[in-house]
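pls read this protein:
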Amino acid sequence: MTTAPPLTAPTSSPALRDHRPSDALEVTALVAGGVLFAVGNALHPLEHDEAAPEASTWVLSHLTFAVGALLIAAGLGVLARRFRGSRTALAGLGTTWLGMVLMPASSVAEAYVRPLMGHEGYHAFEEAAAGFAAVAGIATLLGPVLVAAVALRRRLLPPPVSIALVGMTLGLLVSPALPAEGYGIIPGTVLFGLGMAAAGWLSRTSS
């Protein structure tokens, strides 16, 4: 007579590992990205004319805020958790993410292609890529406005931080009335970067 092997107790399956980025990583990305975005734009020449690519900070400026834009995109998840429950804010964050991931393409082109093609040649290049520029530009300018509107209405961020998020949009709107477009756009982009960095820092314990 054969004896059946003893039954073994079922073993529990190992816990699934959470591969999502931690809050700390996203906060670090958002803060660092915002700071780099602000610094890169502060290094940009005020005049965006034929002589601008000859500035010593031309390439450094564009590469710095391009990296900053990618880091901002990587860290927006922590803001999504802070703004959970608001479809408007989530739409704004998604739109901002799109603008940030598209921006480096134009930044690298400005840094390396514009000096080679010259002012007129690059203007023709920009006209050919007008569709891409329109999508990237609208996303970059509209997304933060939606986020800031919800932040102000629900008091999810301090008012100065919320207002800083729309600095880039405000800078573009007022730039036509200023002696050079850089007098509006550069402070606006610096404010946006610092606003993103502050929002990231304040969201480090949001979830």
Q: What stands out?
A: The CA atoms of residues 38 and 103 lie 14 Å apart.
